[in-house]
Structures are given as structure tokens and as C-alpha cells.
Design goal:
By secondary structure, the protein is of the alpha+beta class. The protein has ten helices and six strands. The chain has two domains: 64 residues, no CATH class; 138 residues, Phosphorylase Kinase, domain 1. The longest helix has 25 residues.
Length: 267
């Protein structure tokens, strides 16, 4: 089944309309298929804040001036001593013209703010700082799809996986370098975010479940270690030498920060 064939399932998942069996099947497929996860993310991005955008553009339109002019025209026409059958014509035409201007403004709003299906994501036009933040949010969103079962088996060759991932990221990765105290390393995989290679290293914590250490090679500027909470997840992230790093999981915030600090010293 190709990506297009999954669209109905993905849209139903976004709308919360899948039954339990279908939802579990889709989540299992998403956990194993990076391309499908990326497609889900693109579909989720389709929901844009149109109403505020329309309000903003309509605020720019001369609505009050149009309304005042329309009222003046109606009042002037009402006082004319014209045949009764001709009186409604002028205000009706002018009213239609005024409405046409308002609809034209609304059309500008649609053209300015609405995303075009199949066109590049609006994120591509965002400032670099926003793009660098977006990958962390994307990981946080799909992190909810992972369970202990996702990492039930270990990779047959962790060294080879790490070497392949390191080649993409321009880093020397070994089991010793990425090891974390009290967390069981399960394997590595390469993803892609807006054209940048995104490495994902999976671990399992005995009490809280999956933990991810992510590295992206996206030329972002250096940034000091920062710890935060996003929903149920504790995050700690930093950037160095054109790469962004993040540790995320349901670990206590102080434990996440401590583990991230140990990783930062190695990267």
C-alpha cells in the first residue's frame, strides 16, 4: 500500500474517527514507516489559522469607509424624486459593488494565507530560527506513537547502524559514545526533516518507557543546553557546530537534564 492509499486512514486518525483496532494498526505502521510519519505530519500541517488571517486582512480593508459611503448613497437615492420603479436600481448596484470590494479583499486573504495543496510547506519560508524549532516539535508529536513494544527487539548490529547514521550526520557514533546510564540502547535510524538528515537513537527506560536522543544536521547556530516540558514529555536540547541535539522522554525533568548534560559533553 503506497502513501496515497493511506491518506483516508491518516485523515480519519487526525480527526479522531478511527476505531480502536484501526488506530492501533495505523500507529504500528507509523512507528515503522518514516515516510508515512512524514506524510501524517504534512497532513496535520494542513490546518492553518485561517480565521485570524482573514480578520487581519479584513482589518486592512476600508470596511468602515465603504459602509459610510454606502449609507450616504442609499440616503441620497432615497431622497431623489425619481420614478418609484427606478429608485432601487442605483442603491442596489452600488451595494453590489461595495460587496464586491469586500469579497475581493477576502479573495486576497485566501491568496495570501491559504496553503496550496501540493506546494512546499509554508515552514520553508519561515525564519531559520523557526525552522530549527520545528523539528523538535515534530519529534515531540510523533513521540506519542512509540511504546515499549516499538523497541521490543534490539538491532542485530548496533555498531553498523551507528556507523551508517554517523556518516549521514558527520559524526563518529559508537555504542560507548551514545550510551546512557540506566537506559537500554535499542538501535538507531535515519529520518529526514525538510531536507536535513535527522538521526534518532532509541532507548527504553525501565519505568517511563521510550526515550529518544535525536541529532539533526541543519546548520543551526550554537545554543546552550535548555530544559523544558512539552505536554507529558521532558526535553533537553542544545546546538553545536551546525547540528541540533535533543533528548526527549517521560523521564523526570531533572533526570532528563542530567542525561542530556552528559551527552552534551560528548557532542
Amino acid at each position: 500500500m503506497n502513501g496515497d492509499d493511506w491518506d483516508d486512514q491518516l485523515v480519519a486518525h487526525i480527526d479522531g474517527e478511527l476505531d480502536e483496532t484501526a488506530r492501533r494498526a495505523l500507529e504500528a505502521r507509523l512507528a515503522a514507516d518514516a515516510d508515512l510519519r512524514a506524510r501524517l505530519h504534512r497532513l496535520q500541517e494542513g490546518g492553518r489559522p485561517f480565521a485570524p488571517a482573514f480578520r487581519a486582512l479584513l482589518d486592512e480593508a476600508p470596511v468602515q469607509r465603504l459602509q459610510a459611503n454606502l449609507a450616504a448613497l442609499v440616503e441620497a437615492d432615497a431622497g431623489r424624486d425619481a420614478p418609484l420603479r427606478h429608485r432601487p436600481a442605483a442603491p442596489t448596484v452600488r451595494f453590489a459593488a461595495a460587496i464586491g470590494v469586500l469579497l475581493f479583499c477576502l479573495g486576497l486573504a485566501i491568496g495570501r494565507y491559504a496553503p496550496i495543496w501540493g506546494a512546499p510547506s509554508p515552514q520553508m519560508a519561515q525564519p531559520a530560527s523557526d525552522q530549527h524549532e520545528d523539528w523538535r516539535q515534530a519529534v515531540t508529536e510523533y513521540m506519542a506513537l512509540y511504546t515499549r513494544d516499538t523497541f521490543a527487539t534490539e538491532s542485530a548490529s548496533q555498531e553498523k547502524e551507528l556507523a551508517a547514521l554517523g556518516a549521514k550526520l558527520g559524526l563518529a557514533l559508537t555504542p560507548e559514545r551514545v550510551g546512557l546510564a540506566d537506559l537500554q540502547f535499542k538501535g538507531a535510524m535515519i529520518l529526514n526533516f525538510q531536507g536535513a538528515p535527522l538521526g534518532q537513537l532509541g532507548y527504553v527506560d525501565p519505568s517511563s518507557g521510550p526515550v529518544l536522543f535525536c541529532i539533526i544536521r541543519d546548520s543551526e547556530p550554537d545554543a546552550a543546553l535548555k530544559a523544558e516540558k512539552r505536554g507529558d514529555y521532558s526535553l533537553a536540547s542544545w546546538a553545536r557546530a551546525g547540528r541540533g541535539y535533543m533528548l526527549i522522554g517521560k523521564l523526570p525533568a531533572d533526570e532528563t537534564a542530567e542525561l542530556a548534560n552528559s551527552l552534551e559533553k560528548r557532542f
